[in-house]
Amino acid sequence: MGKYILRRILWLGLVLLAVSFITFSLMHLVPGGPWDREKELAPQIVENLNIKYGLDKPFYEQYINYVWNALHGDLGVSYKYQDRSVTEIIGTGLPITATLGVIAFILALVIGIPLGMAAALKQNSVIDYVAVVFSTVFASIPGFVLGILLVIIFSVWLHWLPTSGWGDWRQIIMPAFSLAALPAAYTARITRASMLEVVRQDYIRTARAKGLSERIILSRHTLRNALIPVVTVAGPELAFLIAGSFIIENIFSIPGVGRLFVQGVFARDYGLIMGTILFYAFAVAIINLIVDIMYGWIDPRIRYD
Amino acid sequence: MKGKLLYLLAALLIIVPIVFSGCTSDDNDDDGDDGTVTTPQVFRVNLAGEPNTIDPNKASWATERSVIMLLFVGLLDFNSDLSLKAACAQEIPTVANGGISADGLTYTFKVKSNVTWSDGSKVTAHDFEYSIKRMLDPDTAAEYASFYFDIVGAAAFNAAASADAATKTALRNAVGVTAVDDTSLRITLAQTRPTFLSIMALWPTSPVKESVITAKGNLWTEAGNLIGNGPYTLKEWVHQDHMTFTLNTNYWDTKPTLTEIKYLMILDATQELSAYKNGELDMARVPVGTETATLADPVYGKQVVRNNDLTTFAFQFNVNKAPFDNLLVREAMSCAIDRVAFVEQVRGGVGTPAYSWIPPGMPGYDADLGKDFAFNVTKAKQLLADAGYPNGVGMPELKFQYADTASNRTIAQFLQAQLKTNLNLDLTLEPMEPAAFSAFVNSEQHTWAWFGWGADYPDPDNWLPDLFGTGGGNNHTGYSNPAFDTLARQAMMELDNTLRLQMWAQAQEIVMADMPIVTMFYRERFYVVQSYVKGLEPTGMDGGIMGDTSLVNVSIVK
């Protein structure tokens, strides 16, 4: 197991290098640079900015410099927010996006799994129909539509919650729900389908024949097996949520990494783009690794060596 | 089981509102009977995004100006009627008071003796010298440095990015900005520039404190580090979320009434209005396209405040690309577009139809100019026929490029419909990602594009040479007319103001006759403002927030 993790981490290094090279090349290939404005800057000013940020150097030199500095923990300066370093900017956005992502993730599981279970255990009952309707509706409403609807209801009409911003727990509720709705719906469907399959398995019948109580069958046999596909989708879901939804962060003005990335792309802020992309790649890779390790724990048949 | 669940649900429905309502609505309670004095003087507005920098030397965007105007005060400033006023300077330099030399090349500013930094120390002429030279330093890479290239040695210093340290120091010392003593700052120009005082009233020459910058480096603009000389100090800057400003206890001029100003950073315009409706903001923009609905609203309709901006929007041709290299085609386009319908239908009645370039409220505005080529379908058809394309026959494919945003899309579709209806011409729309669009237009690859221009300072010399002079920095039409160039070169340096304005009037006439652009409308800001906000004075040159040039006059009266 230790060896396996070590091998995965070595691969991670290579993946990050590849991601950095592809991103770096794409950034420079896309038309429009960091100093392209509708109100054009004087040529002398553009030249000064290029020299200041090393953009006057050849492409390969810029890339090597970037990688070298990144290996030393320096992700460079932002071209948009010229007085701040990329590490510092991402450092302030990251805890916010992560908090929101984890809350949304927990919300998705807390809503999705019980709903799916209830639906499967009482198949074709009212609960089942409610669950199916819930998962269909929330799987098809885009997060930003839900977000705007929530704002109109809870802020503009009822005045219960602040519309946007960050810092107060009341500001987390609407974005967390908007973000959690789709994964919750998805989790509910997967849980329901998986449960329906597991309850029909021979080993459940065996357990019942042994005279085990329904409670024990459910917790020890049904649930544990039924959750394997849920864990499979939960991994990418967590990665998706922690990566931060650009749209949700934009609508609710949450100062997270997702919003920074979008701003970076629009401003052609090479430093900020590279920083956020590398962070995403790293986060997704690590989460996938954790999911793989969890498989081994949930399903003893899966072995890594 | 089912019964229990229903009870639980019912209980939740009852509890949730109680819990939430318990935590809100605590700020509207204490508006006493007539306790106008005790009303907290806190003003909350939206800055619509994090400023890129609030370092006055480096700043260039409207949102940045909104912050700088609270924290820094320069030698000169603009009144709300956009006339100049002395701020840190004792008086506006003139030839009569000896502030400007007879040849118009040397300016002497006298700094008021009571001007202090927010830490209580004195602001002297040396601080201004440091600030201006730092702004011109190529290592600062300030975006507005080119505005000050009339100063002796400024351009040479700014071009020395790759020079060695000794050369840079020599060039810095050669810049014509000198603090003669603590109270006098002398600036020497390489050539006369009648609008130099207006340029000195802009934010890049605000004083900055050398000791703070040396000690804190780039982080000197963070809350806690920043020392300014403006009416407010930066109390808190939660990046990407909000900024809080409190009264500068050491402010040397009349202290404003508002004790605290909060800038939120809500990006989405619809959300900004929602925040206003939820009592989180005292003032908000109304999103484009929803103005009519807002006016019709029984509550919000009464809170609307509108103000004309010194900003013009236009369609710019590439005069070097067919078919727009033909003046008659350009004139036909101008006559085929109904500006009145545009403002009414596309802009929700917000803004004023524009027939010439320089907007009303600025010296050089000419109300009659351009009316010859106002909307007139018969004339448009005739001009098109004269150009060799009767009924549009034989016309090459017409293309229109724009930055793909929701409001630009409606503009492009309007243009497409106008050409189809009025001239039976097909227009191909080419939406582009905003930065890519800017790069495309700046390299003059476009054929026909949407653009706007806002005043840096209220004078034609900010509106004509850079945009229509041959090779001008923002000339993206490829337009070139030697008659215009000669006139502009003279007007840029002409010290006789009457003569100077006549020259600019003539220059604008030349441009409008050659028609490298079709002017469409003058922008108008459209806000809702709570009735308890008093003293808001919008000007045509506000920054990111309407009225931000004179927030010192605002008070809250509930």
From TrEMBL, chain A:
Gene3D superfamilies: MetI-like. One of its GO terms (cellular component) is plasma membrane. It is a multi-pass membrane protein. The chain crosses the membrane at residues 9-30, 94-117, 129-160, 172-191, 226-252, 272-298. Residues 94-295 form the ABC transmembrane type-1 domain. Keywords: Cell membrane, Membrane, Transmembrane, Transmembrane helix, Transport. InterPro entries: BPD_transp_1_N, MetI-like, MetI-like_sf. It comes from the Bacteria. Pfam families: BPD_transp_1, BPD_transp_1_N. GO terms for biological process: transmembrane transport. It is found in: Cell membrane. Belongs to the binding-protein-dependent transport system permease family. This is Peptide ABC transporter, permease protein.
